[in-house]
Model the fold of this input.
Amino acid sequence: MKIYRVAFIGCGRIASIHAEGYKLNKQCNVVALTDVKAEAIKAFSEKHGFTNAETFTDYKKMLRKIKPDIVSICLWTGLHEKVVKYCAKAKVRAIHCEKPMAPCWKDALSMAKAAEKAGSQLTFNHQRRKLPVFRKARELVKKGGIGKLLRIEAFNPKNILDWGTHVVDMTFKLNGEVPATRILGQIDAREGGSWFGIPFEQLAIGWLTFANGVTAVIQSGDQKEMNLGFRLHGTKGDIEILEAEPHLRIKGKGKSTWQVVKVKGSLHDAKNENMQAMIKDITDGLGKGKEPEISVRRALRTTEVIFAWYESALKRQTIELPLKPTTTNYAAVAKATGVKTK
Done:
C-alpha cells in the first residue's frame, strides 16, 4: 500500500477539519506542520496526535526540506494564490486548498494554470459534496424521483464568496454537473462585513441558467425563507434539503404528502464521513489517476459563477459564461457605488 507524506500549511481552526480526514486514511502520514505561530502548531499537534511531525514557521523551508506528496493549505483566502503557486513550483504532487479559491476570478485562474503547468493535482475543500444528504438527493433526481428537474431554489447564509462557494457548488452537483451558461445577479452593497480579510455583502440574489435549461435562484443573506437549504422542483414532484430535521424529504410522483428520507448527518457534517471521503478522493486521484470530485475544474466552475455574479451586479446586466479574467468582487461593486468596505 502506497503511503503519502502529508504536510500542513496553516494549523488554525480549519486545519482541524482537514486533519480528521487524514487520520482516517491509512495511506496518509502527516510528517510536517507549518504555521507562523509556534503556539498554533503545538496546540494542533497535541490535539490530533501529530507529535512526530516536523514543525516549521516558514512554508518554503518546509517544502524544500520535506518534499511532501500532499499539502493541505489551511490559510486565509488572500494567501491561497501565492502559496498554491509555490507548492506547484516545488512539484508537490497533490495540493489541497481550503475554499473559497481566491479574492477574484483572475487569481483563481492563475493558480489553476500554475498547478496544471506543474502537473500538480489541485483540489479544493468542497467537502459538502461528500455528505450523505446531498449524495442521496442527487440519486433521487437521477432516478427520476421528481420527474425531470426544472429549477432549484437555494438559500445561502451571508457572503456569496465564502458560504456561497458551497451552495453554488451544490447546485452543480444536484443538476448532474451540467455547465452553467449565464447569470443575472444583484447585491446590496450598502452594508458589508469582512471575513478572513475579504469584504463581503450582506444581501444578494442570483438567477443562474444551466446548459440543460434548468435554472437556479440563489438567495443570500438574512432576509429570506431559510438560512441554508435547497428546494428542487421537477415535472412530477419536489425535493427539500433542509438545515433543520428532517434534512431530506420528497414529494414524489403520485404523492400528495412529504416522505422523509433518512440520511446520516446533516447539511454540515456526518461524523467526519465526508472528510474521510474527501481525503480518499485525493489519494485515489494520485494512486488511480482518476479526477477527484473536488477537483480544481469543478471549483473553477463554482468560482466563475460567483465572480460573474459580482460582474453582473457591477454592470447591471446578464453575464454570459465563460467569464473573462477580471478582478471584480464585492469590494469593486461597493467602490462603484461609493460604499467604503470594512
About this structure: The chain has two domains: 4-127+273-295, 129-267+302-334.
